[in-house]
Amino acid sequence: MRRVMFWVAIVIILLVFLLPIAWVYVTSLKSPADIFRPEKLAFAPTFYNYKYIATVRPSLMEFRNALIVSVVSTALVMAVSLPAAYSFARFNTGGGHLLFITISTRMFPPVVAAVPFFFLFRDLGLLDTHLGLILLYLYFNMSFATFLLYGFFREIPEELEHSAMVDGYGRLSIFRKIIFPLIKPGAAITTVFCLIFAWNEFFFAFLFTRRLARTVAVGLAVFWGSIEIQWGPMAALMALAILPTLAAAWFMQRFIIRGLTFGAVKG
Amino acid sequence: MREAVLGESLETRRTFWQILAADRYIKWFLILPLLVVLLCFMFYPLFYCLYMSFHEYVLRAPPLFIGAENYRVVLHDMVFWQAIGRTFYVLVVCIAVELSLGMGIALLLNREFKGQNTIRGLCLLPLLISPLAMSLMWNYMLHVQFGIVNQVLVWLRLGAVEWISNPKIAIYSIMFISIWQWTPFSIFVLLAGLRGLPKDALEAARVDGASRWFTFRRLTLRMLTPLIIIIILLRTMWLIRIFDPLYGTTRGGVGTESLDWFMYRISFVFFDVGKGSALALFSLYVTIVLCAILYRQLIKALGAAR
């Protein structure tokens, strides 16, 4: 009996979490008339909405923009955060204050940064460009990535490095041969998180892009016109925009088994 | 022979110290890029906002120094205080519901069962999907005429509800969307914490005849306190600037305007940069005070957990 109760609870939880996501795909296959008839559960699926977003609007460009911006910004974030997190974890650089300041940039309401950078970027001609958005995401994801990586670096015992040093390894070869293989899973999780954040980010993308550098997240909002919302095409674009994050989720699942304990908390 | 060994160990020790001495530079060298980005992206906006908050600047004319007028106007604005109150209401309700639901589901998922890893993974999905996309989808599903939720209610003969358009209900719909999306975060963190708990202590309590509730309250909950505070801390930071669920549903209307939406409206709809800057600094100040309090609690809890 307890087992039945347990599985009933699990099924309810899964339904609540997954049905809305499934509904995106169901809606994307509905014809324009069926969109407004929720009582019709058995409808004839059509690819009308997908054809619409592929032909009528620049969806492909939006995907390309989102891809460029998330990949480049994530690469930059990792280039900045990996050495910094290592320095924080191993040398306690700045005595904890600097780390706190770095993390506290996450406390900043995006509006605080949005107003000044909007005018700065306007003067520099960076509005509606990939570079502008990449710089913003670098700032946005850097503190979180540093915080996560800090926890992962802390889990690597310091003695390992000391003994390697005594064995005559240089700093660089220690990093390459000992630290890097150990940090790889942590770095992979951090990379995926940064990619997802950048891919999903809406507020900055919405304010700082118009047409040329518009990302998918902003593209979704465009379906909300002044008169009506184009639910069908919107669901189709959503269905495609969600796919990369679903792939990322599948990738991360392997690490969930290990249990992403927040290393920083364990101290 | 003996001297040779001693000399060698001295040799290695010296190089070790040399490297350590060089560390003083290498650690700053490693952190340099981060410092540069921090300086540019943190201090520039901060000083810009500080400067502009004492000026009147609505784009047409150059900034005009007006002292603390912006702050005075903002602090006397009823809409502002309503937005603050609403944001805090959302904050408290969402975090309370997310934590209790998250704890319940994490306890459930902490058992060993068939397909445990897949099911745990599936429970995290809402967290990874674009908040804007999902709030737009919820907007569709909660639509008063052709939303599936109301359709189900009609089938159950309960009658349709104006989820998004009724000023009394809209704010709860937004909370619901946020809770739906972020409960997995609580599950994720608490599940990781539960799996890291010392099994023998819980086992010992059970052997001693402690009730389940007692064990949970006195052991599990106490050991998870740091993680719970971390969740509260992070969610506070994120919820204080709740924006996407509003953009996807009510667009700040129907009595749902949050602090962040108010700031967005002042800064980017009216382009009142001075007032917007004053607001932004105020919001930053509130966030920092809240987070500092929580951070102190976290340090205390970490000390108690040791």
TrEMBL record, chain B:
Record protein name field: Sugar ABC transporter permease
Q: What's the chief localization of this chain?
A: membrane
The entry's cellular-component GO terms read: plasma membrane
Q: Where is the ABC transmembrane type-1 domain?
A: 84-294
UniProt keywords (A-Z) are: Cell membrane, Membrane, Transmembrane, Transmembrane helix, Transport
Could you tell me where this protein is found in the cell? Cell membrane
Q: Which InterPro entries match?
A: MetI-like, MetI-like_sf
Listed under GO biological process in this entry are:
transmembrane transport
Q: What is the lineage of its organism?
A: Bacteria, Candidatus Aerophobota
Similarity comment text for this entry = Belongs to the binding-protein-dependent transport system permease family.
Q: Which residues cross the membrane?
A: 28-54, 88-109, 121-141, 169-192, 219-240, 278-298
Report the source organism.
Aerophobetes bacterium
Carries keyword Magnesium? no
Q: Which domain of life is it from?
A: Bacteria
Query: How is this protein positioned relative to the membrane?
Result: Multi-pass membrane protein
- Give a yes or no for keyword Calcium in this entry: no
